[in-house]
Amino acid sequence: MPEEVILDAPVTGPAVWMRDDLQASDWVWRITPDEAADLDAALRGVEARRLGVGAFGKADFPLPVFGRKLAAIRKALTGGVRFALLRKVELERYDLRQIELLFWGIGAHLGVGLGQNAQGALLTHVTHHNLDPNDPRVRGYQDRREQGPHNDLADVVGLMCVRKARSGGASSIVNSYALYNELLRRRPDLLPLCYRGFYLDYRGEGADPNATTSYRIPIFSYSDGKLSCFYGRRGIDVAMKKRGETPSAEEKDLFALLDELVAQENLRLDMQLETGDIQLINNYSVLHARTAYEDHEDPKLWRLMLRLWLNLPDLELPPRLARFTRAGFADVATAQAEGSRAR
Fold first, then answer.
1. Domains and CATH numbers, the chain
2. Which pLDDT belongs to residue 340?
3. Which of 308, 142, 152 has the alpha carbon at shortest distance from 217?
């Protein structure tokens, strides 16, 4: 179905959920002792071959036992509720390097990892980086501030909890399809703006701190009978400022309504990740957010999450959306490299 078609009927199916309708059995998956042993054996295998993050794939990290559960989770991410909480990997027995290898190996059974910044980093440390929060180049994962609901640049976003904060830092997810249904019910006249899309900020990546996308990315896309969502208010606002633009009255109405809807409790599920937990979300069906947090005084005890971005080669996306999200930050990295060669 052509991408330009606007879906004028409510989305239905298991991917449309309200918080009060969910049962833990819908989204919580627990690792058994046999599955933990399977993971450990796979880790010892890549260590024996001295393989690092990004240097091995699914075949190098065999999981004859745990792999069956990961296949079921992958199915839930693409055809079920579109998110999962895997509880829990026994991290106490491993150092950080081993934990990174474990997480990468798990991800290899779900999809293909991609770079998360202009330097191509495959595994990001989501923690406090002691950077100036007023610097527009600082990205959300690098400080302790609240992050509003948004999407990342990948098909699946994985987050593993290594250490919790002293307080705060709860994870929230918002159902994009329920959000769409509410928007359709209340202000269907605003949908064309969503499908047209907006320019987005590159979040300080690349050589030019004022860079934005050169094309609009749709908030909602409908193609081949599937709805996809990509929204982040901060990225839109900063891009507008950099481009010297101000929102129209209609755009202000859209932003106000979206902000209202993503805050509705029944469209949102809050969870506190414990050490060893892994949250996995379908990036186009679920928005994610985080509350502000406070750390322990000792930097060695600061909150630490590992983030993984995965693409699913068999997942079809509307071209205008795929152009942005499937590349990670590859396009801005290319521009940066070309600028360096020119100098």
1. 26-342 (3.60.130.10)
2. 35
3. 152
